[in-house]
Amino acid sequence: MSEFIKAVGTAEFEQDVIVKSQSIPVLIDFWAEWCAPCKQLMPVLHQLVDSLNGAVYLATVDTDVEQELAMNYGVRSLPTVLLMKNGEIVEQFMGVQPESEIRKLLEPHLTEAGENQVKEKASDDMQMALELIHQGQVLEAIPYLQTESSLDGKLLLIKIYLQEGVIDKAIESFEALNIEQKEEPQAQIIKSTLELIQIGQKSKKNELQAAIETTVSINPLQGIEQLLTLLSQTKAEDKEPVKKSLISAFNLIDDVKLVSQLRRKMASLIF
Question: Does the model's pTM come out above 0.85?
Answer without folding.
Answer: no
